[in-house]
Design brief:
- This is Spermidine/putrescine import ATP-binding protein PotA.
- It is an enzyme of class 7 (translocase).
- It holds the Pfam family ABC_tran.
- InterPro entries: ABC_SmlMolc_Importer, ABC_transporter-like_ATP-bd, ABC_transporter-like_CS, Mo/tungstate-bd_C_term_dom, P-loop_NTPase, PotA-like, Transp-assoc_OB_typ2.
- 24% of the residues lie in helices and 29% in strands.
- It has 2 domains: 141 residues, 3-Layer(aba) Sandwich (Rossmann fold); 117 residues, OB fold (Dihydrolipoamide Acetyltransferase, E2P) (Beta Barrel).
- The chain has a 5-stranded antiparallel sheet with strand order 10-9-8-11-17, with no helix packed on it. A 5-stranded antiparallel sheet has the order 12-16-13-14-15, with no helix packed on it. Strands 3-4-5 form a 3-stranded parallel sheet, with helices on one face.
- The chain is of the alpha+beta class and 314 residues long.
- It starts with 13 loop residues before the first strand and ends with a strand.
Length: 314
């Protein structure tokens, strides 16, 4: 619908104060960059970048100036005469981005632009693309199934489920304050406890959860109805190992380590609680040698603060 190939059944599509709902695609100030980049194989880099400008019949000197500007922007000046098959994946991506920006669109659409790149190059290009878009001041809408990519590149994220937006917000808001179980589980890893309200304090809720031996304290003023099931989210990195039961009202649970995923900078512990529920804890590997750290089969005590939990909406 943004590009103009589908018509909205209701509402408007407004860009910079202009209603585009019935404007044909070729007249919209919108460009799109595809996952495949769709570069013309018989054209050089500079010819690819100039293609849209020539279609618009811009003066030759204006085309030359904009192509030079785009080549400088994406650091591809020395590759101007090369053809796409002579470029690396990251270089082809920069050319496709330059071609998309050459017409100075008011809105740029990106369709999973990093999908064809390997992880290291993808991580580098995410930051590079964000830097380029900030320098030209372009508004961008990007579709991606990579949650980490969305968190890295976006100023605002919209999570969709079955064709509807379920939450819109900044990356930190989406991650730390999910409004539903779907949002919490879609972005990152999360532990979810189900329970019912036991007690309402001044600034906290006490939840009885069958997955925990002890009531769960949550810093929240959410409207929770007595007797109605409630879900509480807890991110793995908020969970800590504790040597003894905390006395400061901190939440805690006891269980057995059933699996450890060592990822270098951190380790992910999968702990089976006495109730049978699984709890995931993510711990930083701050030292080269992991002496004293729990291993498979060890019984561990886990604790987390009341403000680390989030009550999820239904």
């Amino acid at each position: 619908m943004l590009a103009g190939f589908e018509q909205p059944t209701q509402g408007q599509i407004v860009l910079d104060g202009q209603d585009l709902s019935h404007v044909p695609p070729y007249q919209r100030p919108i460009n799109m960059m595809f996952q495949s980049y769709a570069l013309f194989p018989h054209m050089t880099v500079e010819q690819n970048i100039a293609f849209g400008l020539k279609q618009d019949k811009l003066p030759a000197n204006e085309i030359k100036s904009r192509v030079a500007e785009m080549l400088t922007l994406v650091h591809m000046q020395e590759f101007a005469k090369r053809k796409p098959h002579q470029l690396s994946g990251g270089q082809r991506q920069r050319v496709a981005l330059a071609r998309s920006l050459a017409k100075r669109p008011k809105l740029l659409l990106l369709d999973e632009p990093m999908g064809a790149l390997d992880k290291k190059l993808r991580d580098r290009m995410q930051l590079e693309v964000v830097d380029i878009l900030e320098r030209v001041g372009a508004t961008c809408v990007m579709v991606t199934h990579d949650q980490e990519e969305a968190m890295t590149m976006a100023g605002r994220i919209a999570i969709m489920n079955r064709g509807k937006f379920v939450q819109i917000g900044e990356p930190e808001e989406i991650y730390e304050h999910p409004n539903s179980r779907f949002s919490a589980e879609f972005i990152g890893s999360v532990n979810v406890f189900e329970g019912v309200l036991k007690e309402r304090l001044d600034d906290a809720l006490v939840i009885d959860s069958p997955g925990l031996r002890h009531p769960l304290k949550v810093d929240s003023d959410a409207s929770v109805v007595d007797g109605v099931p409630v879900f509480v989210a807890l991110r793995p990195e908020k969970v800590m190992l504790c040597e003894q039961v905390p006395e400061d009202g901190c939440n805690f649970a006891v269980g057995e380590v059933v699996h450890i995923a060592y990822l270098g900078d951190l380790s992910i512990y999968h702990v089976k609680l006495h109730s049978g529920q699984m709890l995931t804890a993510q711990l930083q590997n701050g030292h080269r040698y992991r002496k004293g750290m729990p291993t498979w089969g060890d019984e561990v005590q886990l604790c987390w603060d009341a403000d680390s939990c989030v009550v999820l909406g239904n």
